[in-house]
Amino acid sequence: MTDEILARLKKRVKNLPMQPGVYIMKDKSGNIIYIGKAKSLKNRVSSYFRSIDKHLPKVYQMVQHVDDFEYIVTDSEFEALVLECSLIKYHTPKYNILLKDDKGYTYIKITNEEYPRIESAKQRLDDGATYIGPYISGFVVKQTVDEANRVFALPSCSRKFPQEFGKGRPCLNFHMRRCMGLCQGKISKEEYAETLSQAMDFIKGGGNATLKILEKKMEEAAENLEFEKAAHYRDRIKAIQKINEQQKVVYAKAVNQDVHAFVQGSGDTCAVVLKFREERLVDKQDFFLGEVDSLPEARSEFLVRYYSGNSDIPPLIEIDDQYEDPELVEEYITQQAGKKVTLHIPQRGEQHKLVQMAITNAAQQISHLTEQSGRDVAALAELAKLLGLKKPPRYIEAYDISNIGSDTVVAGMVVFEGGKPLKSAYKRFSIKTVNGIDDYGSMREVITRRMKRYEEEKESGVSFGRLPDLILLDGGKGHVSAVAPVLAQFGVEIPLFGMVKDDRHRTRAIALDGGEIAIGSQRGAFTLISTIQEEVHRFAISYSRQKHQKAGLELALTTVEGIGPTRAKALFQHFKTKKAMTEATVEQLCQVKGISRQKAQAVYEYLHPELFPQEEEKIAEDGE
Predict the structure, then answer these.
(1) What are the angstrom distances between the C-alpha of 601 and each of 39, 472, 562, 576, 596?
(2) What region holds the GIY-YIG domain (predicted)?
């Protein structure tokens, strides 16, 4: 976009009304590239042409192609919503969210052969087969076909019948009682046809309807003393009951509802819809929405698009979190359904468990795009929700102060990227400007030094040149209050929280400036925060112990003849650790500035007392 075009668009925006309506963005060829609704046309449209460089990539790309715009004023925001949906469906603009998944129509196919099979098919061919459908969901078709073949023990192998009757042994499915063993040639065509017909009734009428039919036939067979036939019906009844019980484990009370969950990754957002119909989970749909700036806004937009023109709208829709304009969205979906539809955000109980199930599935989809596990994605998303962050914090820094006495005060910084420790980015700090034990002052010094290093290295974008998405301090709200002014001083906006422990030194809550957030009920976030807190404490205290041991040995070295504080410090600066110094030869010790061979020999003997035992002083005893 040129400066000339931008100036022209800004001038046009000034004349927009502060009323609700729909705006239509066009490119230089006059093609519609984006359609949106607004509570206030002037405020909303003007936001696109301010601070363009700060827009998300998708919005930035859209704005770069805008050459002109139109708008339609409406009497209410609800009218704007309805009009927006209608225009998007008609024009299908490039930059609007497209609710398209990778599933086409799917059919249940009964093959045209002497012993027909039940299969799933992607296309309806002119092959004489019988097709049931189409179904939007391949998940439904596959589940239904698998259940029908398993319950009625129909063959699912690749053998041809009757051509291969008696050729070869029955497969493993027969021995596991999942196949009737048609390959043995002992089942008549009439008996097979009856079984196939029962399977088709099961597919068309569902498990409960088929149960009633089979129970009646079982009773008739028993009355006619056809006990073997009755046993077959009994086994099929048990198989259907088992299928139904497995479905009820998912959720027996979810009679007719949809469950929506949204999980953000580092560059994409996944929406998952679980569909429950007649006490069964019948479908799972995944949608990738790209990078979104606001999850509440994305949820609202997704719900409206998803149910616009949808003929299968249940009376209850469960959602994982807040969404924009709830009354407006619920009214629109109710209007689309032609009946009352309730949108609900469950906080506890069985419905909440279903939402968690949807979140897990969405997190798993995001994990396929990154190197993160589904569990880490879900934990970061849960943490972002808990702390009110716009998006999950991919890069987290945590700090802890540790001391062993007032002379050895240090700090440790650990980094977690994508929910995992990034040990190459860990840093250690020796406190320099704070005297004595002062955790608040020490933490201020550490964050100040860290921010100064950022100013020096930000061009590189690595190590200290990269700002975190979240800073965690091992401490309560006092630590947060002490450090927040430092971040403000450097003009950086980084979410800052403390990690609070209980009396047993276990993670209890998240602290912010002025209060606390309980995290015990948020399993994923709780585990992640606990892991980070334990890791930063371990790292800081290990450095503190190392420094304390070094200080003790440095002091002890001054007892060696010819070694004062200056030479003792020089030795440690050269060898870094006690282990390296102990493993050094006399010649290597001589390489340290100020250490002669005689002094090096004395240090070597001090570090290896087992090689140079001291002679005990002889005490004369009085004799008689």
Answers:
(1) 84, 48, 11, 19, 9
(2) 18-97
Task: Tell me the two tokens of residue 235.
Answer: 């086994």
| Domains: count for the chain | 4
Domain final residue pick, 371, 398, 423: 371
Task: Check pLDDT > 60 for residue 90.
Answer: yes
Q: Determine the Cα–Cα distance for residues 40 and 389; give it in Å rounded to an integer.
A: 26
Q: How many residues does the chain have?
A: 624
Both 494 and 412 in one domain: the answer is: yes
Write the CB contacts of 480 (distance below 8 Å, at least 6 apart in sequence): 473, 496, 497, 498, 511, 512, 513
Q: pLDDT digits over 37-53, tens only?
A: 888 999 999 999 988 88
The residues facing 35 across adjacent strands are: 24
User: The domain spanning residue 421 has which CATH number?
Assistant: 3.30.420.340
Q: What is the pTM of this model?
A: 0.57
Q: Count the neighbouring beta carbons within 10 Å of the beta carbon of residue 99.
A: 17
283 falls within a domain: yes
Q: Cis omega (within 30 of 0) on the bond before 314?
A: no
Q: Calculate the average pLDDT of the chain.
A: 82
Residue 614: its pLDDT value, please?
54
List the one residue out of 245, 171, 253 whose CA is nearest residue 207.
245
Verify that 281 and 416 share a domain, yes or no. Answer: no
- Residue 486 pairs with which residues in a beta bridge? none
Q: Are residues 315 and 287 in the same domain?
A: yes
Q: String of b and e for 68-77 (b: at least 16 CB within 10 Å)?
A: ebebbebeeb
- Shared domain for 325 and 299, answered yes or no, is yes
Q: Exposed, middle or buried by CB within 10 Å (0-12, 13-18, 19+), for 327?
A: exposed
